[in-house]
């Protein structure tokens, strides 16, 4: 891997600069950097936009049906129908999770994604096969994209005996986090579900990421239960609540109490700007209150539906659209969420457009960084750890 | 203009066929059409997707700031702030409406749009200049895209004396429709506003298209007033209500009464799947009840915000996303709305993938028509009236 100097780029938060990369790290950021001699590649950015690598903080790479021919989706509307339909389809179609997660990862990389937190389904039908497939992909592609894996009981945990043992096995074999799911509406026993999740978090010293689709006051109750356990275990800064639709469906006073709880326990919120007309978390309010926000693409072309794509600029657009962010400062907030904020949530210390950080960079044609969210041009170049992984020169 | 035969395309509602075009019209659709001699161009579709031309039934081409450098948007949240901000900016920036509408039209054409209904703002500051600019663009590009023009009192009508006279002048000089706007919340006199709109409709024998952002019961009252005037004037089939957010914000019994009113008076509803978390019309329910539905991109990169693009496949995606349409049959409904349904609403008799209709066609790479809504590839070829207007062979 050669060192390189990228000349004349419009870098997020820096303006027009040159960037020097040495040993895979950002070595210098400045205007009109002098040429260095030796084995250094010089890239003329021609004033293109430069972003830090895009971060997907909530993916389901194992679910994707990409590359298997168009899946005609006829699934019913309820969450349980979608879960059952997917479990059935996986058996019928004999899904190869290593192949599928590789396909998804390659498209993610082409869109400039350098870091992904992906859930993997663990249940008593497929066992650990989704985890093992994604773990192999994570290893194969470790120089091209960083993947965090969450052991996730999509089909229920307490309600499906044997699942906890499988999750523990995943955590013993390289899963990075433990994931929970709708403690009331799926497992029907919120306290017991969360006790089990936090028991595993402590035992394996891992962070927690909980899917919470539960609406209104029921979901708000789950947020409180999660916050109580976060405090009890001293797990502040180590818990994310994903979706959290309930934060858009409760009254003002209750919302403020929950925001205080989230802040006290440094719990992050993931919102992907969901489809439909249900309630959604008030992203700008949470962000401005100091709640750590992150986002992701959720499932890509899977049994749940075809709507999502592995492009974090499209996700930024969707998050802006769903929240009616029309001002540039609001869309810049979304750009922070698809880059730095999501990376901080994932605790990627080496991340960022700063000297000493990993050279994870995306170059794109365009006039302003906000315009890139609207126009979403093909990525001109993607660099991961100083290595060019996408090159459309 | 040569006649042509397009071989081997996957045509919407037809499957894999050949299409023969003669004198700008679709002359034959069938499998393995025999070759004809003479001056005929043969195009190998290679199994690509073929759609009828995309239809934008609700645009604001005169508002766009495309090509003028990125506009940093700092506008406040209220409708009145957006209206005032735009009127001020137009004077400050000395907008050339012919140039701007041409820029927007060219991008529309590149995305395969063959028919557009565009509003033009008419007010006592800019007078008829937006109308005149778009009318010239309509004439310049008449072989490439069909444009309908709605005379639209964006800044208020009764509340801004002199506006009605300007609107009548536009209608005398080639505006195709008369447009209204929030009869209660802008003009503060719903009966008088609508009486004036329908008076002009009758006087100039034109159809009506009314922006209705008014929420809940207030908007529902406006729907009733519009339906009463539609019936009184015998204007059934000639009235569209655009946005109609209120249809998502009233109780079930009232919604059913309004649906009955819409059906009795054959009033169409335009929904573009708006940004934000407000109520939206229940598109699938209205469509299945038989209400004529249409959609459009609204404003493109203008003083109201940057979020929209002139791509009806992106609009189809947004409409699907906002309505949580995940099944293929639902996304196929959206494809009907961005093509045939919107064209019927605009009364484009020559439209459609049928023998005898104008050869307005879009060819796109892809496996299924629904996939094109998700992947939105560049348009491979666009044909308008038998003329190739976009050629990416």
What name goes with the CATH superfamily of the largest domain in chain A? Answer: Metal-dependent hydrolases
Counted up, domains of chain A total 2
Tell me how many strands of chain A there are. Answer: 15
Average predicted local confidence, pLDDT of chain A: 96
Largest sheet of chain A: 8 strands, parallel
| Uncertain parts of chain A | none
Element string of chain A (H = helix, E = strand): EEEEEHHEHEHEHEHEHEHEHHEHEE
The coarse overall form of chain A would be: globular
Sheet-strand content of chain A, in percent, reads: 15-25%
Oligomer: homodimer
Q: Can you give a write-up of this model?
A:
Two copies of one chain form a homodimer. Chain A folds into two domains: 3-52 and 352-391, Urease, subunit C, domain 1 (Roll); 54-345, TIM Barrel (Alpha-Beta Barrel), CATH 3.20.20. Chain A is 36% helix and 23% strand. Chain A is built from eleven helices and 15 strands. The first copy, chain A, has helices spanning 79-93, 97-110, 129-140, 163-172, 190-204, 216-233, 252-264, 283-289, 312-322, 328-345, 369-375, and strands at 3-11, 15-22, 25-30, 40-52, 54-59, 113-121, 146-152, 177-181, 207-212, 239-243, 268-270, 293-294, 361-364, 381-384, 387-391. The relative contact order of chain A is 0.16. The A-B interface holds A 69-70, 72-75, 248, 275-277, 279-280, 301, 304-307, 309, 317-318, 320-324, 326-329, 331, 367-368, 370-371, 374-375 and B 69-70, 72-75, 248, 275-277, 279-280, 301, 304-307, 309, 317-318, 320-324, 326-329, 331, 367-368, 370-371, 374-375.
């Amino acid at each position: 891997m050669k060192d390189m100097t990228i000349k004349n780029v419009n870098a997020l938060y820096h303006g027009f600069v040159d960037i020097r990369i040495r040993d895979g790290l950002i070595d210098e950021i400045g205007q009109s950097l002098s040429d260095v001699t030796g084995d250094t590649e010089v890239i003329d950015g021609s004033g293109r936009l430069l972003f830090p690598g895009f971060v997907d903080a909530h993916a389901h790479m194992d679910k994707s049906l990409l590359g298997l021919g168009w899946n005609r989706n006829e699934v019913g509307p309820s969450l349980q129908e979608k879960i059952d339909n997917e479990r059935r389809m996986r058996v019928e179609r004999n899904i190869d999770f290593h192949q599928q997660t590789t396909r998804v990862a390659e498209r993610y990389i082409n869109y400039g994604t350098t870091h992904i937190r992906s859930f993997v389904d663990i249940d008593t039908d497929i066992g650990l096969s989704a985890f093992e497939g994604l773990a192999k992909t994570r290893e194969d592609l470790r120089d091209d994209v960083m993947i965090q894996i969450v052991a996730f009981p999509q089909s229920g945990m307490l309600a499906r005996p044997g699942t906890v043992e499988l999750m523990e096995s995943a955590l013993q074999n390289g899963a990075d986090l433990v994931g929970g799911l709708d403690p009331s509406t799926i497992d029907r026993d919120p306290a017991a579900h969360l006790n089990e999740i936090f028991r595993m978090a402590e035992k394996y010293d891992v962070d927690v990421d909980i899917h919470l689709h539960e609406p209104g006051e029921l979901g708000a109750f789950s947020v409180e239960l999660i916050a109580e356990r976060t405090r009890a275990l001293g797990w502040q800064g180590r818990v994310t609540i994903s979706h959290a639709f309930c934060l858009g469906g409760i009254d003002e006073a209750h919302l403020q109490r929950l925001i205080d709880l989230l802040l006290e326990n440094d719990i992050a919120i993931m919102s992907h700007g969901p489809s439909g007309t249900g309630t959604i978390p008030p992203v700008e309010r949470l962000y401005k209150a100091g709640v750590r926000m992150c986002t992701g693409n959720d499932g890509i072309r899977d049994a749940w539906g075809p709507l999502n794509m592995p492009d974090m600029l499209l996700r930024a657009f969707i998050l802006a659209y769903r929240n009616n962010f029309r001002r540039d400062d609001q869309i810049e907030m979304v750009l922070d969420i698809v880059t730095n904020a999501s990376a901080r949530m994932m605790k990627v210390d080496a991340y960022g457009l700063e000297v000493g950080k990993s050279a994870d960079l995306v170059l794109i044609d365009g006039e302003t960084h906000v315009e890139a969210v609207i126009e979403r041009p093909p990525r001109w170049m993607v660099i991961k750890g100083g290595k060019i992984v996408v090159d459309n020169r």
